[in-house]
Amino acid sequence: MGDDKEISDVSGLPDELGIDEDLGRAEQRLTVRKEERTYGKAVTIVEGFDETSVDLQDLASDLKSALATGGTVDEGRIELQGDHGERVRDVLGEKGFEVGE
């Protein structure tokens, strides 16, 4: 029994598989919406994250790179410059998140 691998309390599988992170993503239901800011500039807002299971800074960085846009993390939500609603849903879906309407 010399196996020193840590077993997850959530999934019962070895922690190194990263299953808990995937399960955490699948349980979250995110919303994507567009707001207009000063001078009619569009901002895409993604919210509904469980901040204990998602690194919002990393995810925001990934989204900004994928969409070639600027953005920030503010009060537990990701704000991206421009109207990127459909593409954000696609990218988040590829990363294992469920996005509502």
Given the structure, what is the number of helices? Answer: 3
Q: Main β-sheet: number of strands, strand sense, barrel status?
A: 5 strands, mixed
CATH superfamily: SUI1-like domain
Report the C-alpha radius of gyration, rounded.
16 Å
CATH architecture: 2-Layer Sandwich
Shape: elongated
Beta content = 15-25%
Domain unit count: 1
* Low-confidence sequence ranges: none
Query: From N to C, what is the helix and strand string?
Result: HEEHEEHE
Structural class: alpha+beta
Main traits of this protein?
alpha+beta, Translation Initiation Factor Eif1, about 100 residues, five-stranded mixed sheet, elongated, about 25% strand, about 30% helix
Short synopsis of the structure:
This protein has 101 residues and is α+β, with helices and mostly antiparallel strands.
Outline the structure in words:
- The chain is α+β, with helices and mostly antiparallel strands.
- It has one domain (29-99): SUI1-like domain (Translation Initiation Factor Eif1, 2-Layer Sandwich), CATH 3.30.780.10.
- Helix content is 31%, strand content 25%.
- The chain contains 3 helices and 5 strands; from the N terminus they run H-E-E-H-E-E-H-E.
- The chain is elongated, with a radius of gyration of 16 Å.
Strand and helix map with partners:
Layout lengths: L18 H9 L1 E8 L5 E6 L8 H12 L3 E4 L2 E5 L3 H10 L3 E2 L2
Parallel strand pairs: 1-5
Antiparallel strand pairs: 1-2, 2-4, 3-4
